Amino acid sequence: MARPKTPLLTREGIRDAALGLVDRDGLEGLSMRKLAQELDVQAASLYSHYRTKDDLLADIANGIMAGVDVSGFDSGDWRHGLTVWARTYRRALAAHPNLVPVIAVGPGRREEALRRADAIHGGLVAAGWPPRHATMIGASTKYLVVGGAINSFARGFDDDVQVYRDRYPNLFQAHKLAEHAVEIDEDSFELALEAFLAGLEGIFEKVRTRTGGNPDEGGGEGVRH
Predict the structure, then answer these.
(1) What is the pLDDT of residues 191-204, one digit of tens each?
(2) Fewer Cβ neighbours under 10 Å: the N or C end of the chain?
(3) Is 65 in contact with 89 (CB distance < 8 Å)?
(4) Which of 21-25, 108-112, 193-197 has the weakest average pLDDT?
């Protein structure tokens, strides 16, 4: 039998094409029918690799989460671990903003997300945080990152100076924000992260004093994020 002239359909190829569709058209622009058209195959061919669109999206989310770095916790320095995790997490989300609603919903059963959640929780506890605090820190970091990735503060302003000059005197330069959106959004995230870590420093000292350096005395096992 002659070899097919076109490459066989693979899960990787399906994922890449689906991610391209979502990046271009948003989540609502992805359907198995449209994806099949994009790949020039029959929709039935896709279902032999993925049972549902949700299964496909979960696999794509798994791949994106694989680029999030939690190795900073290996050093035992929770500040370094959180910094590396938060920056790479935001970068991964910002690269595919249309997928944020899928990724941000939580790890569920996604292997890569669960592996990272386990590393983060374990790293925080090993560094001296009680389990309950470790859970809350993981959640708080996620809120910070997702908020920074899902929306742009600077791009929310019009570039027409007339909009602000007469009625909003304190916003007389707001029309320039969109032009510098990338820089403003990056620097604003770094400021928020710095303030967050500084606040945690004070809490950490209080927790260590109260528990005598024993994280198990910190109030329960917590829930892994």
Answers:
(1) 999 999 999 999 99
(2) N
(3) no
(4) 108-112
